[in-house]
Amino acid sequence: MPITKAGEIAVRNIEIWAEGERAQFDELIHPEARNWEDVVGPPAGRALGPAGFWETALWLRAAFGVVRYDIQHVVADGEIVAVKLVMSGRQVGTFALYTESGELDQVFPSTGKPFASTQTHWFRIEDGMVREHWATRDDLGQAKQLGWLPPTPGYLFRMARAKSRAKRAS
CA 37 to CA 46: how far, in whole Å? Predict the structure, then answer.
C-alpha cells in the first residue's frame, strides 16, 4: 500500500529529527506547530513552530548521539498520520529532564549503553506541514536498557553529581 502525501511528510519529519538541519525544520514544520511531547524537554524546546522542534531534536542528539529511526508502519487517515518505529542509539551525553515550569528535574549521566525503543508518533498535517505531534514510547524499556533502572547506588551518586553540575552551568 503506497504512503500518502501526509504519510511522506510525517516520515520526513522523523528523518530530520535524526539528522536534519534547521532550514529543513523551517520548511516542514508549521510556524504554529505544537509538539505535545515537549513537557519534559528543555524550555527552548517548548516553543511553537520549527524553533521548538529543532531545540528538541538538538536535546535528543546531544544525549543520544546518532539516533536511528527504523520505520515499521505508516498509516494515514486524512490529515492524521501514525508512524510506528524503533528508535535506537547509544547514550553518549547527559540526558536532562525538566519540570513543567522549566526547572531542572532529573539528570541521567551518560552510560554509553545502546538502546532500541518502540515508539508510535502521531502527526496532524496541515497545508503540507506538520501542525501537531504526539507520541507513545516505551520509556521504561529504554531506561532499563540504558542502565537508569533499577538505579545502583553508584549511578544515583553520578545522577546527583550531574544534576549539580548542570545547575551550575545554567
Answer: 9
For residue 163, what are the contacts with CB-CB under 8 A and spacing of at least 6? 96, 104, 106, 107
Question: Residue 32 pLDDT more than 80?
Answer: yes
Domain span including residue 98 = 5-169
Hey, what's the torsion of the CAs at 21, 25, 28, 30, to 10 degrees?
A: -170
Q: Is the dihedral of CA 53, 54, 55, 59 positive or negative?
A: positive
Tens-digit pLDDT profile for residues 119-136: 999 999 999 999 999 999
Alpha-carbon distance of 60 to 64, in angstroms, equals 6
How many domains does the chain divide into? 1
Provide the 8-state DSSP code for 49.
S
Whichever domain contains 27, its CATH number is 3.10.450.50
C-alpha cell recorded at residue 38: 515537549
Find, among 139, 137, 86, the residue nearest to 116 by Cα.
86
Predicted TM-score of the model (pTM): 0.92
Place of cell 531542572: 104
As a dihedral over the C-alpha atoms of residue 92, residue 98, residue 104, residue 109, rounded to 10 degrees, the angle is: -20
